[in-house]
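Below is a complete specimen:
___
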Amino acid sequence: MALLHPLSNRFLLVLSLHLVLCSNNIVVEGRSDSPKPIQNPNRVSPMYRGGSSTAVKVEEIMATATAPKADMNAARTSDNDGKDSLLVVFSDLDGTLIHYPDTIHEAAVDGDQSSIIQLPPSSTGLVGIISAQTLVKCQDIRQRGVKLVLVSGMRSSTLLKRMPYLPRADAYCCEAGGRIYYPTTAAATDDDASHGFCKIEPVSYHGASEEDLEPFHVAEDMDWRSRMEQLDACGPDGFVGNDMTDQDAVLIEERKGLLWSFAQSLQKQGLVLDTKGYATCFRVNRKQQANDQSLALFDKLLNGDIAYPPELDSSVNLGCIDFYPNISGKKQCCKYIAGKFGGSESILSTRCVCICDDDNDLEMALACSHAFIPSISSASMSTTIQAHPTKFTKTFSKDVDGVLSSEAALALILERLGNE
């Protein structure tokens, strides 16, 4: 029988921080592996502070990008033989390329609402936006021979529903790295349905080429999935029917695998779990607990009175506790993809950069050669930037945030590519 370990005191700090974030309506998701100091409850999210930023041009944002000169040089330098030339850009989505303003008008650039694309709501009702220029710049990066990989903690059903609105990419990762999809032009067959094979029809946006709007299919990485399907990880049952629906095709009570065995034990004790659209993780949400008894059980889980197997990992997100296999996570996922695209996982630290904003991105950011930060959604990200200043470039300022700071991050990457 596997040894169990309780949630640590560090974990309690994490929840305290995220409860503060929740009270300020800041989007936070996914994994957390480092201690987080308690955040100032009066803090204002850098993502949106009002309409003053909407008229600022990307060139002006780039002029305010904050990074030591040595850092910027390191981020742009490549050997003449191409050994260190940029190969992959990894990007988070929520808070990084996708933002959540109060209104579309607030986010519009120079008052032009056609510059903004509104995404369908997530399973929890959040409605995000992305800018047309973000989509254009992402394609500019790919046209220069660099791979673009989107890495998110969102559930697979949300990712696939949003995919027509997202930048066309060379790989799409969700559930904190538990699932990976690749685009393909091959036609789907009936047998492909169980492998996450579905058709994507991109929405039109200003600046899109005919090629950008061509429909494509996505298929799941079955080698990576086979790792998750091991019984000491998730097992195979959660993958059935969970791609385009939030309904559990196989009930939790019937799923095999260590992750779901632990979920079953929590359910039997009276906890309410969120498993909708998840195949490689599940969530325990304090707000969903039905009564005082289940709330008390949630507190026991948080306080370490209920332990979980060491083969699993956990993180806190908006007052929720997420559980998933420890072979998953954004860093592990990025290492795997770097090896697929570059022949060796070691290129993650030499030929890959990332764009991110939150503490669940920290391992990925530190593992890449450089990280561009269009917003900061957690105190732990600020602390890490201060501790590793040469690893990060912030592309937002006091008056510049949201989609413009995302565009600035992409513009800096394109500038680096122009210097290679």
Remarks:
- The radius of gyration is 21 Å.
- Residues 1-56, 68-81 have pLDDT under 50 and may be disordered.
- The longest strand covers residues 179-184.
- The first helix runs from residue 9 to 23.
